[in-house]
Amino acid sequence: MKILVANLGSTSLKWRLFDAAGGSERLLHKGGFERVTDYPRAIDDCLAQLREAGHIRSEADLAAVGFKTVIARGVSGCVALDEAVVRAMEDYSALAPAHNPAYITGVRLFAARMPSVPLVGLFETAFYQWIPEAAQRYAVPESWHAAGIRRWGFHGASHKFVAERSAELLGREDVAERARRLYVDGGASPVRDPALRVISLHLGGSSSITGIRNGVAIGNSLGMSPQSGLPHNNRVGDLDSFAVPYAVRALGLSIDEVERQLCKESGLKGVSGVSNDIRDIDAAAISGNAAAARALDLFVHEARRWIGAYLVELGGLDALVFTAGIGENRAELRSRIAAGLEGFGLKLDAARNDTVRGAEGEISAAGSPVKAWVIPANEELVVAREVQRFLQSGRRPG
Q1: What is the DSSP letter of 7?
Q2: pTM score, two decimals?
Q3: Per the domain annotation, does 394 fall within a domain?
């Protein structure tokens, strides 16, 4: 069973091809194109590479194409991407302007190019279907909540992989199995005591933090849209709701311009005035740029604020996990984020932390009651697994 996982950006197409036969989950091929201006040609070129590598003879050899879709009105979980679901994604494009339009375009192009191949989406909101109601709600009138104004949570595939892998590393196969089967049985699989408590930090161009108890999310720092939570590379993160009408009046901005600035000129880029790339910001801070240093300070502060919230909600901690580009590669930021947590049982090993970059590894000190790990993100594998389960369940696009 060969499953192609397509990662779509506004000007990019990246992919991984998995062979799920016999539960092997083998990665057969990966590749991608940047600065894409002709998506139909990019899809053709992707398939050509797979043929030339000998992995497929034609698209008929694909069991499905899987997508890490973001958000759709009234839709979550792992679903067939029929036209009704694509229209539901269009309904929420304003909430994910950097993500939904690219996926909508790509899904329709894949459907036109290979109409007989099932297209399946695993929505980023899926991991948060079972969080407590209090963690879903905003304090808005009921009519607003009914209209979909609530905390949805994102980066679900990334945090789900952390839930599975961290449980394996901590010797809790019961919790790992529960996390693996989450979308099958809704977290009903039994686990033994004591509870396994993990805080997962997906830190990258887009960042979020999730509390996980026994393989199931209890909340996520991202709220109604991917523009919330921690400061992102050029997206604002958390912001007082009254800042928008104030900016309209005080700065003479239109709503469209406010939206553009919050989505493209804010976050680490907006605070630093340097770049939306953490490497550039860090270099500027080292050279004495006060604004760049301020951006890093804000990022660390907000990460620690969310860690504190989930420490309380979980009633303690067994593991702190760093993943995604910043989490996997920026040892100095990991150290700053985890500083002073010895009272909660976590002590980093400075040498280990400096050594682990872009690979899996423990960064906590020997004997630390709470463990700290770097676990590289593997969202595409999670998508492939869930697409396989979707197909094996007998569900098919109508």
Answers
A1: E
A2: 0.94
A3: no
